[in-house]
Amino acid sequence: MSTVRRGGRPKIKPPKKHGADFSADKTWLALSKSIKEVQNHNAASLSFEENYRYAYNMVLYKKEEMLYNGVGTLVAEHLDTLANEKIVPQFPAGSIGETVQLKAQQGELLLKGLKEVWDDHESIMTKLGQLLKYLDRIYPEKAHVPTTWGKGLELFLRHIIKNPIKDHLVSAILETIHCERSGYAINRSAVKGCVDVFLGLETDHGTVYKCDLEQQFLQSSEEFYKKEANDLLSSCECPEYLRRVEARYEAEDSRIHHYLSTQTSLALKQILTATLLTPNLSAVISMPNSGLDIMIDTNKLDDLARLYRLYLPVPNGLHVLKKALRESITRRGKELNEASLGPVGNEGEGEDGEDEKDKRKDKGKAKARPVPGATPAIKWVQDVLDLKDKFDSVWKDAFKSDRDIEAALNEAFESFINLHPKSPEYTSLFIDDHLKRGIKGLTDAEVDAILDKTITVFRYLSDKDIFERYYKNHLAKRLLLKRSISDDAERGMLSKLKIESGMQFTSKLEGMFNDIKTSSDAMVEYQAYLGKHKAPMVDISVTVMTSTFWPYSPPAVAPIIPALLAESCKSYEGFYDSRHSGRRLTWLPSMGNADVRVAFNAKSHDLNVSTHALMILLLFEKLGDDDFLTYSEIKEATLIEETDLKRNLQSLACAKYKVLKKHPTGREISDDDSFSFNVDFTDKMQRIKISTVSSRPENNQERQETQGKIDEERKHQIDACVVRIMKDRKHMKHNELVNEVTRQLASRFAPDPLAIKKRIEALIEREYLERCEDRKSYNYLA
Prior knowledge:
It comes from Coprinellus micaceus. This protein is mainly alpha-helical.
């Protein structure tokens, strides 16, 4: 061949035509024989160069259409032959009573037949493509027809992937998958081979897989899993149901990975979700004897984790799970509340537990002594903490610390804790018990962990101002009576409260600590003062309390302090006045205690009693053994408040250590009772502590008094908040003002909108605010 250049580009000249020697019919006859040999797998005996030249010449002599159509006819005939020999004989017989497994085995033969035909066709078309390469380069573009390979695919679709073959193939695939879903082993490679063929065959509407197999596969999957869901619900408990469902998800993932197309994965998972989970979310999670509550109770973390994994992707799954968790916690919390508010057996227990023990003896009940501090208050808080620990463990280990679930748990705990009318008081009592004796022998880390848990309950309280009042009372008693085990633990608790609620919340509590420190230093100075002045007969230790810090106020009528004690009081007053001017001391003997040696017939005992109890005992000092004092006489001689007087008389005459005799005998103190000194009292202990009732929940009357004081304080806080906001804003609408007041006071308590409205009216009357003409907003009056 020679080349010439036109426009700088080479061009190959075609060879000279041999017109007289070329015959299209003869050439095609020779070539068609060779193609048939190729189809019969006898290509090794043929000359590739010779057959290539036949095809080349037919194109060269403009017989390409004849060649193209002829090849198509031969391919179609061969495909028909293959279909009749390899596929049609494998059609299932469809006899009645065939098992799923037998149908799958028959289908496997059909699928293998298709794969064999496809492999044969692909091999043949590859070889023909090499022979007809020149035809593919010239003719398809000119005639707007597919290449020989494309034509072969068209013919395969038309002669093989046709009805009824296609229907049988699809049915065989579905039967095989159904067999595997039913628990039998199948030949996955046979299914994969057929699926690969379907994926490689394109129609006008997409692949055969997409158009003919996928929809029927998804439909059959939906039918299968609807039935599966009903069967599982009726036969399985919750954990087993979840395991079966998860296994189905894993099986379908494996199926997609090994022999189906990934393009089906999303739709298949949606079917699994829509049939196995979405309709049954609530039914599964609330199954009796096996649902969420039972799994939590039995600590089945693996099953709970599986529940979370399955429910999380479901559109409504997380909502159902959160709702169930809230209901579970709320139900358990209500049970705790009801148990703690039921018949109270030891709310009247003394510090050492002996008062209640005597009460049981008086009633003739042979019961064991309760664990120290095991009051309903302490048990309730401990039960709440145990419940919180249980759900925290589930949240962390099973629910992957999901923040949405954490919010639901917190909401449920906050709800039932604040439904308990005594939750602020009980929380303070729990702290009081632990700081007095509950942390003895524990390491600093263990103490800190206990305090952190207690703060958890405090954090849920909406009425933190009520807690503050109770905590202040309990802290005051611990400090004054020196009952706190660890000063570091006390200050650590104070720091945690400050972090949670701010400095304003703890400022008065810190002032109480400062008073204790200042008083301790003052006592050192007082001892030096006594070295220069006449010392009284009775040694005293005085704590000077700043009135604004401590939760105590002097009684309406001051008690009559015995002369023996009054001498010591006057001595300290002289010392105090010498160092401070303009300050006045008011004595609160109700908060004190005393050590006194008392002589009985058998021997003397060192008693530790309250100051009021000492004042009562001193009345009997100069009486004869058979002399009596009536309740009224004791009351008149001491002027101790009635409630406190009865409590101290109970501790002296009705508890374990009966230093006084009560006439008539009995537990309760009445106005008609009389008392005498018990000269025959004896005990193996030399030093005896006689405790009054303390650290107990308030009775109804005390709680009403406390609530009244809190309501009065809240009025002032609302007033101050409204004025502070209006001073800054000058003008606000009513709803905006109420919302802002609620927001600012939320850290202390949840104010009632009606209460805020009443305080606004009071401020308008006092001319702090004025109502605007629209009657819906206010102005601040400077």
